[in-house]
Records
---
Amino acid sequence: MANEKDVHACTLDKIISLCKRRGFVYQASEIYGGQAGAWDYGPLGVEFKRNIQNAWWHYMTQLHDDVVGLDSAIFQHHKTWEASGHVAHFSDPMIDCLECQARHRADKLIEDYCAANNVKTEKPVDTMTHEEMKAFIDANIDCPACGSKNRKYTDVREFNLMFKTHLGPVANEASLIYLRPETCQGIFTDFKNIVQSNRMKIPFGVAQVGKSFRNEIIFKNFIFRTCEFEQMEMEYFCKPGTDEEIFENWRKERWNFYLKYGIAEKNLNWHHHDKLAHYAKDAYDIQYNFPIGFEEIEGIHNRTDFDLSQHTLVSKKDMSYMDQDDGNKSYTPYVIETSAGLNRNFLMFLCEGYEEQNVGKDGKDDYRTVLHLHPKLAPITVAVLPLMKKDGLAEKAKEIQHQLKEDFVTDYDQSGTVGKRYRRQDEVGTPFCVTVDYDTIREQKDDGSPNPDFGTVTVRFRDSMEQERVKLTELVGFLHNAIRNYKPVVR
C-alpha cells in the first residue's frame, strides 16, 4: 500500500490535470484529436510563461551592464545552417520496428530500458556507434509500441531534426529554407552589426528569447519535449584565453538564478558532457529532478570561435573583432553560451511549487493543493475577494481591484465561501489575497463609536495562510515590499 507521502507526491499526471483544469496548458487542436508535440498555453499559462521570461531577461540584461538584447528572424538564409553545421550534423539516431513500423529514437530507447531495468551499458549511450546501438537493442529490447519479442528492427540511421520548406512560389534549391532549430545563429550573423551600432566592447553578451523548431522523433512527458518550443539564450563573446574563467563564472550565475526563484538546490544537478558537440570545447547541463527523474533544463557551453569562424568561411565576410584596448589586435572571439528552455522552465517551476499540503487541525486531514510560486512568477499576483456580494462589498472590492491593476496582475472572485476562494487561488499560485469585509467600508461600529479598522483590508499570504490587516492607502506599497522580501518555501 502506498504511504501518505507517495499518495500526495507531485506526479506528471497531476501537473497535466492541473494545467488543463486551471487554464495553464491545453493540448493543441484537441477537438481534432490533438496534435502530437504541440501545446497551447491558456490564460494563466501565458502569464506564467511571460513572467518566467521577464525574470530571465531582467537577470541577464538589466543586472548585467555588458549584455544587450536581440530579436532575430526565425527565417535565416539556408547557408546559415550549412555554416553552423546543422545541415550535416543536427540529427538523432533513429530505428524502426519492422513489425509495426513504429519509429524510435535509438539512444532514448536504450536509456529508458536501462533505467527501467537497472542495467548499465559498457559505455555511455551517447558514445555508442550505430552498430553498437543496434546490437544492444536487438539483444535486449522488445518494441515498446507493439510489444513484439521478435526484435526485428531496421539499422540505426541519422534523422535530421530541421523542418525544411521553400520560401516563395518556386520550390528549388535557391528557395530552400529551414525553420530555425535554435535562436543563437541570428546572434552570430548579427555580431558585427551589434558591435558597430552599439559600440560594444569585448567581453559582452547578447540575449535572445524566441521560438525554435525541431522535428523530434518522439514526443513525450507533456511539454518537456515538443517540436515547437521557446529558448532563452545568451551568447557571451570574449577574448580567447579568457574563455575558461568566463565559462565557470556563467555556470555559477545560471545556477544562482534558479536558487533565487525558489528551486531547491537538492533538486538541481550538474551533468558534464563526455561526448561534445562538434562546436564545443566544454559543456555542462543544469538538470532538474522532475517526476520523471533528472533532466536538462539549461545548457552552458564553450562554443570556442567555431560559429564566427564558420560564418566568415561561408559568407566571405570578416567576423573578427579589432580590440582597441589591446593594441588594435584582431581576433575571432570565443563564445560562452547559456541556453535555457522556457517551456522546460515552465514545467520545472510548476513541479517545484506543487504541494498537496495537509492543513487539517486536531488530527483531521484537510489537504489543499498549492503552488508555491515566487510572486514575480505567479500568473496572478493579487486576488481581491469581497466577503459577501451584498451591502456594497462587491462594489468596493471591484474598486480596489481596479486600483491594484496598475501595479499587479489581479483577479476578482466572489463565488462561493471565502475559504473555497482561497483554495482556488492557492491552486494557481496566487501569493496574496485581499479580502474586503464590513470593516473596510463602515466608519462606525454598531454602537456608534469610530471603527479603527475602517479603510483597511485583510491580506492573506498563500504560503503561510497567515493574515494581516493593512490600510488601503498603504496596500500597494505593502504588496511591493512583500514581493521584494519574499523568501522561497524550502521543502
---
Amino acid sequence: MNKIKLFFLLRKNVKLSEKRNPMFEANQYGKLFGYIIIAILGLEFLALGTFFGWLAAKEAAPELIFYITPFLLIFDFFGRFATQQTPLMLVKPYLLTPVSKYSAIECFQIQQLLDSGNLFWLTTFLPYAFIVWCGGLTTWATLGMLLLLHLMVLVNSQWYLLVRTLVNQHLLWWLLPALFYGTLFLPSFILSNAQFDALTDFIGDALENVIFSWWSFAFFAALFALLFAINRQLQMRLVYAEISKTEKKSKLKHVSEFKTLNRFGQIGEYLKLEIKSTMRNKAIRVRFIQGLFFITFFSLAIAFLDIYRSSFERNFFCLYAFVFFGAVNLTKVMCPEGNFIDLLMVHEENILTLLRAKYYYYCAILLLPVLIMLLPVITGQFSILMILAYLFTATGPVYCMLFQLAVYNKQTLPLNDKLTGKNQMENKWQGIASMVAMFFPIIELFLLQAIFDYTIAYLLLMVIGLAFTLTEPLWMRNIYQRMMRRRYQNLEGFHATR
C-alpha cells in the first residue's frame, strides 16, 4: 500500500472512530458552538485584512502585510493550544499492525497540515491580496505572496506541534518559546527610540528587497522540512515511550499523609484525594502549574508594563485569575472519578461528600491568585474591593454553575495519558459553561456600572457572590439529588469510555 492510499485509509478510520465514540452527538453541539466563535473571529480578521490592504495600496507598499504577520503568527501559536491537539493518540491502534509506524506518523502530520484550521488566516490574507492586486501588484507576485504567507502558517503549525509535544513532557520546555518570543520583543525594551526606529527601518528595507524573492520562499520551505522531520522523529519516540508506559527509575520518596485533615472526617479524606491527584497525576498537575504560570505572567505584565490598561482588560484578567482553575478542571468534574465511580456508589451520600470536598479544595486554591494579584494592587492597577468581588464571584455563581456539570458529565477522563489521551470537550455544556464563566461576570459588572459607579458595582457583585457561597449546602445537595436520578445513565457512560 502506497502512502496516498494509506493516508485516505487512516483518514477514513479517524472519521469512523469519531462517529463510533459514545460522545459523538454531544461533541457535535460543542463543535457548533466553536464554529460560531470562529465565524465572529473570521469577520474581525476579514476587516483587518481589508484595512491593511487599503493602507498598503495607498502607500504602494504591498509588503506591509509581513510587518503584522509575526503578531498574527504569535496569536495563531497560542490559539492552537486551545483548539488543536497533538495527533499522537491516533497512532496507538497501528503500533501492532504491519503498517510502517513512520508512515502513519507522517500521514497524521499531513492530515494536520490539511486541516481547515490552517486556512483560517486566509480571511486576512485573501482580502489583502485582492486589494493590493487591484492596486497594481502583478498576478504572479500576488499568488507568490499568498503561497508564502500560507507556508509561514504551516511552519507555525509545526513549531506549535514541537513545543506542545515537549511541554507535555516537562514544563521547563516553556522556556523554549519564552526565549524565542522574548528575543523578538527584546529590542523594543532595551533600545532607545532612535535606535529602535533605525532597526525597524533596516528591517523594512531588507523586507522590501527580499520578501518577494525566491530566497524567502526557499528559506521557509527549508525551515518547514526541518521542523517536519524533527516532529516525525520526536513524536515517534515519545509515543512508543508512553504506550509502553516506560518511566524513569526513581528512589522511594516520603509520602505525606496530610494528618491535619483527619479532623474533618470523610471530607478530610476526600480533600487528601484532591491534593494527591493534583500532585501525582500528570494531566491535573500540568494544568495546575500552567495556570499558576499564566496568572503570574499577566499579573506581572499588568503591574509593571504599560499594557492591559483598559477597563475590560483589567477586569477580564482579574476574573481570569480566579476562574481559570475551575474553567479547566471543574468543567470535567467527576470525569476523573469515572475510573472508580462504582466504589463511590457503595455508601449513601458518598458522592455528596466528595463534591463538597472538591468545592472546599477549589475555594482554598483561590488563595494563590489572591496572593499573586497583590502585585497589581500594590502598583495601583487593582483595588482590594475588585479582588474580593471576583473572588466571591468565583466561589459563588461560577462554581455553582460549573458544579452543575457533575449531573451531565459521563465520560471517564484518563488521569496520566497526555500524548495519547483525549483532551477535548466531552459534551456541549462544558464549552458553554467555560465561556459563560469567563465572560458573564464581566458583562454583569458593566451592566451594574451603567447604573452605579465602580464601588457600588463591585459591592453588589461581592454580595451576589457571598449569597451563592453561603448557600452552597443547598445547591450542592440539589446537584447531588439530580445526579442520583441520572446515576444509571451516567454509570453506563463512564463504563463505555474507560
---
Amino acid sequence: MLLAIKLAIRKMCPDFIWKLYEKFKYKRWLHNIDKSNRIWANSSFMRGGIETIEIETVNRCNGICPFCPVNVNQPQRPYAKMTEKLFRKIVDELAEMNYKMGVSLFSNNEPFLDERIIDFHRYANEKLPEAIFWLYTNGTLLTFEKFIEIMPFLDLLIIDNYNDKKEINSPELQRIYDYIQKHHEFDERVKFWFRMQNEVLTSRGGQAPNKQGMNDRSTLNVLCILPFVQLIVRPTGEVSLCCNDALGKYTLGNLSTQSIAEVWSSEKYKSIRMDMLANGRKNLLLCKDCDFICYTSLETIRKRP
C-alpha cells in the first residue's frame, strides 16, 4: 500500500520537486547517521575500547577486483609477512586484556595466501575463547578440506564468489556450497555471496581504481566511526588508520615495539579522533575523499554455541 501511494505521488510531482525531495531525504539520512555515529564515537572514546581488530598476516591478494586499490593489477605494496612471534604477541596481549570483541585475521588481502592461517585461527581461538571471529575470502584457494578444518574457529565465513554470470567459480566451491545447503548449522555462519566482478563500491578513501573521478560530491558531512572502534594491523605490526587505508598511508603506531594499549591511546590516534569529532572528515587525508558511511555492528554476528 505504501509503495503504491509513493508511486502515485511520484507520478503527480514535477521532476524538479521530486529531485528536491530526494535530495532532502538523502541529507536527512546522512544527518541521522552523523548524529548516531557521534553518540557511538563519544561512548567508545570514553570507554577506550577496541570493537574490532583486523590482523593482516600477509599483504597480498590474488584478486583482480577493480574496486580494490591492492588488486593484482595495481602497483604492489612491498611484500610483508607477519612473523609468528609478532602474531602471538598481539594475540597474547589481547588475551591479557580479556578481549571479547571482534577478531579478523585478514584486512586488505586474501587470507588463504598465508599457509598458516588455520593454525593462526586455532591459536587465537585458544587464547580468546569469547572473541568473535570472522573471515572474508574470494574462495579461489579454499578447498573443502580447508573449509572443514577452519570452521570450528569461525563465527562467520563470507565467501565472495566474483562471477558476472553468477556461476560458482570452481568444483571445490561447488562442493562447499552443496554441503552448506544440506547442513543447516551453517545457515548463519557461512555466507556465500554471488558478486559481480566489476562492482563499483565505496571510494576507499579516493583510492578505488574503478571510482576515480566518479565521486564528485563534496566531503561527506558525516562523522566516521572507524577510528573510534577499529584497529588495523599490517604484517609489519604497523597500525593503519582504518580498513580503507589499504596502502598504509597512515601509520599510528607499531605493535612490534609498542603494546596495543600504547598505540590505541597514543597522541596520534587521539588527535585524529578529536579532529574527526570537531571538524568531521575535511581535514584528514583519505577521510575527505572517502564515502564510507555504515559500519556493521558485531550484533549481526552470532557467537558459536
---
Amino acid sequence: MRKSLIQNEQIIKKASMLKIPAHKLAESLKSGNFRSLYKGQGIEFEGVREYIRGDDVRSIDWNVTARLDRPYVKIFREEREFQLFLIIDNSNSMMLNYFGKSKYDACSEAVALLTIAAQINCCPIGAVFFDGEINFSIKPKLDKNQSMLILNQLAYENEKKQNGSDLEKAINGAGKLLKKRTLVFIFSDFKTENWQKSAVMLAQKNDLVAVRITDEFDYKMPKLGTTVFQDSESRVKMVLPTSSKKFQTFWTDYQNQKNNNWESFCIKHGILPVFMKTTDDPFKVLNEVLKKRKKE
C-alpha cells in the first residue's frame, strides 16, 4: 500500500512537471488539421428530410422514399471530435539502459505528454501496453481517471520483469478496441517480427503514426574488443569483434539499412514514420509530428 502511494505521488509530480509542454502540445493537437479523421467514418448519420430541388440525388434514402411515397434525403453531420490511442512497447529491449536513459524512459515521457494533452483537450484516449503478451488494454474513453490509469501503468511497467515483444498481437488487440477512426501512435523500437500486415490493416481504418525509438547502439557499436553479446529478447548469443573497423562499418550500414527499409515500408502503406532518439526532446518530436499532419 505504501509503495502504491509513493508511486501515485511520483506520477502526480511528473504530470505537474509536464503540464506546461502538454498544454502547448494540446494546442498543436487542437489546431492540427487531421483531415482523414473527418472523412468517411468521421461523417455521422443524423436523420432524413424531404428532398428539395438541388439536393444531391446520391443522398436519397430509397427505403424511406419507397415507404412514404415521396423523396427523402439522408442528413449527415461532421463528427469533429477525434480520439487518441497509444500502443506502448515495454519489452526487454526497451528497458535496456546503457546511456543513462532507456528507450522506455523516452517512450514514457512522450506517452505522458500525449495523455495529459488529450485530457486538456477533452479527447477520449485509450492504450495497449505489451511485451510478449498484452499486459494492459483500455478502450478510448473521456475520463480523468482514464488518464491516471495510463500514467500509472507507465510507472508500473517500468518496475516489473519484461519479456520479448509481440507487436502483431498488440496491434490486433488495438484494432478490436477501436470502433471509429482514431489517431493511433505506436511507440516501439520495432525489434520484433511479423507486425507489418497487422499495421497495414490498422492504418487502412485509422491515422497511424509509428514512432521508432532508438539509442546509440542502433547507430554505432562501442569498441569493446571481441565480446559476447546476448539478444535481450531471443536470448541468442553472438561473439562480435567490436574493435574491428570492418565490423564497425558493417554494423552502421546494417542499422541504417534496417531504418531505411522500415521508413520506406511505412510511407508505402500510409503510416507516418517518426524516429525518436533517447536523447531527443519528446515534446519537440511530437510537436513536429502534429505539424506534419497539419500540412498534409
